[in-house]
Amino acid sequence: MRRAVLIAIPYAWLLALFLVPFGIVLKISLSDTAIAIPPYVPTLDLAEGWTGFRTFLSELDFENFVWLTEDDLYWKAYLSSFKIALIATFFTLLVGYPMAYGMARAPQEWRPTLMMLVILPFWTSFLIRVYAWMGILSNEGFLNQILLWLGVISEPLTLLNTNKAVYIGIVYTYLPFMILPIYAALDRLDGSLIEAAEDLGCSRLQAFWLVTIPLSRPGIIAGSFLVFIPVLGEFVIPSLLGGSGTLMIGKVLWEEFFSNRDWPVASAVAVVLLLILVIPIVLFQRNQQKQAEAEQ
Amino acid sequence: MGDIVSSTVFEPWEDARAEPLIRFRNVTKRFGSFTAIDNLTLDIYEKEFFALLGPSGCGKTTMMRMLAGFEHPTEGSIELAGRDIANVPPNKRAVNMMFQSYALFPHLNIWDNIAFGLRRDKLPKLDLEARVEEMLKLTRLEKFATRKPHQISGGQRQRVALARSLAKAPKLLLLDEPLGALDKKLRQDTQFELMDIQEKTGTTFVIVTHDQEEAMTVASRVAVMDEGRLIQVATPDRIYENPESVYVADFIGDVNIIQGRTSAVGDDTYSIEWAEGQRQLNATSATSFDNGQTCHLAIRPEKVTITSDRPEDADNAVQGRVHDIAYLGNLSTYYVELPNGTIIKAQTANTRRISRRSFTWEDPVWLSWTATAGVLLAN
Amino acid sequence: MTRLSWFNVVSLTLGFAFLYIPMLILIIFSFNESKLVTVWAGFSTKWYGELMQNEAFLNAAWVTVKVAVMSSTLATVLGTMAAYVMVRGGRFMGRTLFSGMIYAPLVMPEVITGLSLLLLFIGIGLDRGVLTIVLAHTTFSMCYVSVVVSSRLVTFDRSLEEAALDLGCSPSEAFRLVTLPIIAPAVISGWLLAFTLSLDDLVIASFASGPSATTLPIKIFSAVRLGVSPEINALSTLMIAVVTVGVITASLVSKRAMVRQKQEEQAAARVT
User: Which of B:105-124 have CB within 8 Å of C?
Assistant: First the structure.
């Protein structure tokens, strides 16, 4: 009996505040835009009972999804989100792996401190960390000042409000998500494996390539998904660091909803984004599961 | 095998009028399609120190968890003092358990760990304190009362776990591999301590173990289990001297098994044809065998005598060559290879110093044993 | 592993420089005299003074803290329950759906979570304000809490609970007297995580909030969109300081506890 209550409370909460809202998004994505409150039709009229439900159903259609394929703004935004997420994940890996590797090779007594240094930014406000780059990347910003002073460039680079700034912002904010799983994988790695590889005739570099990298692969995969998945729907970074040319689907959804007040289209955008996300999420879960099984 | 024989004979299982404390009646336990316990019937009597012995996965832990109330039989019933306990939850059973991991509460000190169960019974403060002190004294832990579990040694933790489970004076105490985490020396000392405490408190103990020596040492009766079934239930000396099957003979201690065919010679003596060109062996058996029946002669290595000359008037004598010697300090085991390739183990006590020993590798030797030394087994 | 090579040293130095220099610049320029954030014009704390007079920011900060305390507390209770159900609940109807709903919000883009909750609130006619933000934050942070707590519960020696039952506890007593005290550190870190997530959240709060309640991230976001300002630098510095002090204190406390435990264990080993 107590067990039933224990299960029912969180279950009911998630049903009411997670599943039902998502059902509403799905429903509205099938409705039509209207100048009304709420700004869509049809609305379900429960007073009319079963027939009301039938007419309600018959008025739902896939018009918004058709619209998403016809207006090239949307599919371009999906495509460009995907591209940005992919490239940014790659750069994050490029910066994160050497750091995780260095941490794993650091003396035992430094590791907790290094670990804390990686985690500390994670606890700091995301918004503030993105904001910090606005001052650095602007035309008269810190980076341009230094480059001008060093004589590397003769006139300021335009960085803020471009895709470059978005990449920098993503790498910066998502770096801990990449480092931590890779570090965890490298930390578990038995040092004698490298020695065994060298004993069997590998050079340092070969041992790294043939032993360390393959054994840290689960960490690489986990870290990459942890960056890729949330970046795909990212809103704050493109809207603060990106320019008008930066197309990301999270930003499109936000504008569709808040600026255009087109709820049905915003909902359709959300539904499609979620469908796209299912693939990497399933792959990620499978990777985690394999890893968990390997540990047993 | 240090079985301690007490002066007064304690064997309620021989008494038809004795009421068992625990009664398993045709108990079967299945987990999905896996059968952990297979139609098992067993009586355990009050004040017994009963050992469930078997390899891992034989169902012994499941038996214990059913007694504690963490598992329920799929079929059959379990009675405690004449009452079916199927519907009694673990916290309402007069049964306590000492866990293999000890399961000491890490956030409570030793005193509070021992008092934990007594507090659940709402015992008056003074009685509770007296009982905890008594338990601390019984297990010699008075000095450690205020320590936390991680601040004491493994042997002390084991005693805390024992004190905690005995504090409520249960009718039945279950011990799940109680000495498994201790090293060998400490384990031997603790075995005697356990027996001592069992005698003092008069509690019925059921111990689960995979260590045959431990079971033989502490238990009044041993149940050898395999694949969810009881193979043999008997006192330690009977299990050792009169195993009922090759499995038990082989599981308990070291043994030579010689397979052959019987032919009756006298009332209870048989001659065994066991290998081409070898003389037949002689053995006695209380159970009868048909002529030509397949049999297994089980002989303990310490009952096989090794000599350099052919022994006179031995019931059984075979010749072979020393193939290997395992020197164990107090004992030596000789692995003697017979002409047909069979290896027979013979054990001798090393009463002389090693340099004066008479046999070495490849020496031709004679092995001999009496007709009553072995046990003749059908399967 | 073996010693650090020069490559390791360089990558660690550059990596941590990359992580920390931007924040350092932010902090330095919060003490700048000039309104221009990129030109140093002498030391001043005047932006902190102005911040303290900015009613809008102060109100938003108060709302944010209120929301964070309420939602993280609620999320900790619900998340711990959910974790317990996941790890110890055994089989029940709709278990797969339940675990799906626990994990999905972790990977769900915030814009979608925000949008769906907003549509729900409008659908049931709930006025948007502090209550709706608390509901929204509780929902997604309870999932984080449940992940943290369940990873502790998985490694929890189940025989401890069985021992409690064996010694006469009812299941709820066993939870209160044994399980909860032992998993308390995980529950506390779950609360802290939920608290920071709530403090930090912009996107979901933007959807769930109404004109009556604005949180600090919303306020900062709308100010920052117009460009960099020293006042925001000052505010950011304060927030960074609070987090840094908090994280360092927490790690020192846990480190000291670990050292003490090790010493005690060694002392015990000597006695016996």
Answer: 105-107, 116-117, 120-121
